[in-house]
Design a protein that fits this description.
globular, 5-stranded parallel sheet, Rossmann fold, 139 residues, alpha/beta, 5 strands, 5 helices
Length: 139
C-alpha cells in the first residue's frame, strides 16, 4: 500500500483503549508508526513541538483530562500550522448533537469505539485507507 509509514497520533487517556488500538494496527497490512498521548495538554504540547509533516492523522478521544477533545479540536483548527491535520474523533459516546458539533468544528470523521476487536480493526483499517488515498473530506 503506502511505502512510507503512516504516522498516527492517538490521544486517549484509557490505557486499555491504547493497547487495543496498537494491537489492531499490528494486525493491519499497513506500515504505521503510532505515538500516543494521554491528555489534551500533553497532546497540544506534542503537536506544537512536532513538525506537522510528521503526523498523518490524529485519533482523538473526546473525554480526556486537562483539556477535552472539544477544546483540543478547536485549538487545532485555529492554529495555522495544524488546521489541515486530519482529526478522527474516536469515542464511546454517540449523541447526534455532539457529533454534529464536532463536524461543525472541523473533525473529519467521528467513529464510535466498537466493543468487538474485529470491528475495531476493520474501522481503523477503513479510516486509514481513506487517509492514505487523500479522501479526508467530512461525510
Amino acid at each position: 500500500m503506502s511505502l512510507k509509514p503512516l504516522n498516527i497520533l492517538l490521544a486517549d487517556d484509557d490505557m486499555d483503549d491504547c493497547i487495543f488500538f496498537r494491537e489492531a494496527l499490528d494486525e493491519l497490512l499497513l506500515t504505521t508508526h503510532l505515538t500516543t498521548v494521554h491528555d489534551g495538554e500533553q497532546l497540544m504540547i506534542y503537536l506544537n513541538e512536532t513538525s506537522r509533516e510528521l503526523i498523518d492523522v490524529l485519533f482523538l478521544d473526546i473525554n480526556m483530562p486537562r483539556k477535552n477533545g472539544f477544546e483540543v479540536l478547536e485549538e487545532i483548527k485555529q492554529n495555522e500550522k495544524l488546521k489541515d491535520l486530519p482529526v478522527i474523533i474516536f469515542s464511546t459516546s454517540y449523541e447526534q448533537e455532539v457529533v454534529n458539533s464536532l463536524y461543525e468544528n472541523g473533525a473529519h470523521y467521528f467513529i464510535r469505539k466498537p466493543s468487538e476487536f474485529a470491528q475495531f480493526k476493520k474501522i481503523i483499517y477503513h479510516t486509514l485507507l481513506l487517509i492514505v488515498q487523500g479522501s479526508i473530506s467530512q461525510p
